[in-house]
Amino acid sequence: MPAPRTLLLTGAAGGVGTLMRGLLPEYGYELRLLDVAPVPDAPDATVADLADRKAVREAVRGVDAIVHLAGISVEADFDAIVAANVTGLHRLYEAAREEGVRRVVFASSNHAVGFTRRPRDGEPLVPVTTPHRPDTYYGLSKCFGEDLAQLYWDRHGIETVSVRIGSCFPEPTTVRMLSLWLSPADCARLLHAALTAESVGHTVVYGSSANTRGWWDLAPARALGYTPEDDSEPHAPRLLSTHLPTPEDDYLGGTFTAP
Description:
Strand content: 5-15%
Number of strands: 7
Number of helices: 8
Strand order of the largest sheet: 3-2-1-4-5-6-7
Largest sheet: 7 strands, parallel
């Protein structure tokens, strides 16, 4: 599909949102920004909670697509997770339905399948069809988000690419990230592919770079047109030199699976 011109970027003041504010305009997008916190150097950004139906609908009005990065991105109290990641997401989809927005890119998470065991050497990569096995309330909210996206495709025809993001940082900082790292440049490439691919319906993909030690099957993301260019391997010697194995290393969710 033609590249959308105007994007609503939620969570614009967060870690990934800050990185994407600098990278997505290179693909020709005009960004409209929303966050519950002020967005640095963006006086025109909408500062509002997703609970504010009026503010969310006004932010959605007139955009061509939505990249949804907002919400709580770590484990938290159940009620807080529900308010931000469940009720807030529903409000966003309702605003998209009411305003006729037809494409959403939803920041899901590997923690939706966090209790899945990581592949050992020689074993197949983890497919996107692996059953949900959330490792936290946070991961559970991402399972809900993927199912909500499916509902809004089946019932209302809003297309969504749910991206199970690994760890999007300028460089990996842990041994686990050697397998799940998504470089900022590759993240922008993946979001652009998700925004412009034809007929996605509701598609779930993993979001990581082309890591030598990768655990996930990236074929569904590549099918959208995503071509990752980065690899975490240059960082491996430094990170492995001080790593002490733990039981949580056996799972995709890492420390999120700890007791």
